[in-house]
Amino acid sequence: MGESANPGRRRGAELEHAIYAATLDELAANGYGRLSMDGIAARAGTGKAALYRRWPGKQPLVLDALRHALPPLPEPNPERSTRENLADVLTAFNDVLAGRTLIPGIEFIVDMLHEPELRTLFAQQVIAPRLASIDALLHEGVHRGEFDSGAVQPLAARTGPALILQSFLLTGEPPGPRELDLIIDTVLHRPAPPQR
Questions:
Q1: Is 192 a residue whose pLDDT tops 80?
Q2: In which element (H, E) is residue 41 found?
Q3: What is the pLDDT of residue 60?
Q4: Three-state SS across 147-178?
Q5: Measured on CA atoms in the order 187, 188, 191, 196, is the torsion positive or negative?
């Protein structure tokens, strides 16, 4: 019996969302290397033909699923300090790497480094906007007089995300709140407060 014989089958955006969810779940369970259109279709409860009508293979499907799953960048709140807004951006980045969003997390991200198009997408759509946001926050903080222009070093915007990633690589765990505070202090070139 063909797919069209099922009167209750999902269509359009509902089916696409189910396929995206299945793709991300398969990535989390099996990694990109073992990801298959068969596995995605089975997990989504649809036929492979429904996938191939929309995507010619797994790479474009994964790219679309990642775009769909990418959490929005936190909007700066003018009522809060630059440090608090910076904490929001770095916490959101930490959550992506920790797998606390729909994106599978650090294991998938490391796996993705072997796929140039996926790596480029991650760099352009996850990393670059966050670096631009951090850079804008730092310049705004200087403009507001919250800290001096020494905080805006050439690589200052990269420092926070790099230290978060390094924490994962060294410990296998996301940095906790205290460590994130230390990372923010490092980005802002402030001495860490004494431990109690």
A1: no
A2: helix 37-44
A3: 92
A4: CCHHHCCCCHHHHHHHHHHHHHHHHCCCCCHH
A5: negative
